Amino acid sequence: MLPSTNAATVPSVSIPPRAGIGLRHRHVADFLTDPPDVAWIEVHSETYLAAGGPRLRALETIRRDYPLSCHGVGLSLGSADGIDPRHLDRLATLYDRLQPDLVSDHLAWSTAGGTFLNDLLPLPYTDEALEIVRRNVERVQEALKRPILVENPSRYLDFAQSTIPEAEFLAELVRRTGCGLLVDVNNIHVSAHNTGFDPLGYLAAIPAGAVGEIHVAGHAVHDTGCGTLLIDDHGSAVADPVWTLLAQALRRTGPRPVLVEWDTRVPELPVLLDEAATADRLLARIDKEARDAA
Amino acid sequence: MLRDLQAAMRRELLSAGTGLPPGVVGDAIPAPVRFAIHANNVVGSLVAVLEAAFPMTTRLMGRPAFRTEALRFVRRHPPRVPQLLAYGDRFPDHLDRKAAARPTVVSPAAGDLARFEWAWNTAYFAADAPVLNVAAVRALPTERYPTLRLALHPSAHLLTCAYPALELWDALQRGESVAPAARPQKILVVRPLLEVQSVMLGQGELTLLMALSAGADLAHAAMAASETEAGFDLQVTFLTHLQLGTFTAFTDPLAEAPL
């Protein structure tokens, strides 16, 4: 159970505070023939923006057996141009059909001047950007008639224009819009390495009560020749420091749904389920710690 | 202003140059190295999207040549909406233009093959619709057939290719090497239920389906078909497409007429 003090602000009560996995195309047949024992699933919303066909049909079938989180990668919440109304309509239609338990997207932008760039691009954290993101999040929440979760991005660069630390930017966004947060601890680890901040300080600045979901994923180490950058490629097992950061995050937020993301070089389903089992053991351990302490 | 920064980033991300938007901070790792992560993500992911949408065209052209053309296309015609299932509709035309300019680099068959793959993708993701069944048509009095108007299934695509795209696609799927020679081929791609079907069409058959999809009744469509193909057999063709699932519904003006 979620702590009652947080329940009012956490828009994820229908997703259990356990480990879920991302549903990937290569595992769809496994899910249809022998539904695995996993507490919930997440999909990338834009992958299902089709009028019909087998892909959507399969998801509708699988969805009957699992709580579903729809994770967007295309809303472009940070666009100065605003939210594309046609894209919002398409998502609303999809969500009407799938009735997801949770909807999320990123603190990033991907559309400018009518071009979709297919990357979660960094924002400068300024008062102007905060106002733009606030407007966009409110627009989305009004259209979808539900609060959304906003995810912290992986960062490879900083802007000289930035005046607000990212965690504070998110906290202020929560305060102004009533949105929840999707805390990606792999992204915190990656961004902290790449742009130089303290991941624990970051966690401390996040409003724990607003966290509705946590992501973990693998990352790659890229040697630039003048230092390493960590790349958030979701292409390997979760690294040890990220599990440690997950434990620290859970100690702050209490039990939350934890998603294991693995999107490139996707392994056999059992490998992914093993990662989810690791997350479940960690959730149980932190929960026990908290109860023992109380 | 954020709008200006985003416009500048969009420009730099899609250009092949090494320009930087204002304000990117560098340290031990210089700003251009950091920004390049995003530039590579943008073009790399979009090239990968095209490769996944056109697997047999990739095989025909060879991966390096395909990726070169895909990169050119991505820079020139980036997606306009965050719906990548719909990205790539103009890529076949891009390949045609490149093949016309440099036939030794881009096979002249690539455009038609890509057009076929795009029709396949579009059919796969098209709206679901009930298929008109043979029994429903058989239940009608035959004197009503001439005035029937038949709607093609929403997944149906009619293609007229200068190269035998369906044959090439089949051969490439089997892993065979191909040496495409120009030979016109007319193709129907349709997904009546969950499986995409593709069949070669005769000239009369294509004319019939085009006329029906343009709203002609069966008698006029059959007449048009007979004009383009001597000995066109309406009965066989009609039954073939009823069985395939080419049609989704019909309207029978006589049945709808007030009594």
UniProtKB/TrEMBL annotation, chain A:
InterPro entries assigned: MbnB/TglH/ChrH, Xyl_isomerase-like_sf
Stored Pfam families: MbnB_TglH_ChrH
Family: Belongs to the UPF0276 family.
Full protein name: UPF0276 protein FZ942_14620
Species: Azospirillum lipoferum
UniProtKB/TrEMBL annotation, chain B:
Gene3D superfamilies (UniProt xref): DUF2063 (1.10.150.690)
UniProt-listed Pfam families: DUF2063
InterPro entries named in the record: DUF2063, DUF2063_N_sf
Domain Putative DNA-binding stretches: 5-95
Full protein name: DUF2063 domain-containing protein
Lineage: Bacteria, Pseudomonadati, Pseudomonadota, Alphaproteobacteria, Rhodospirillales
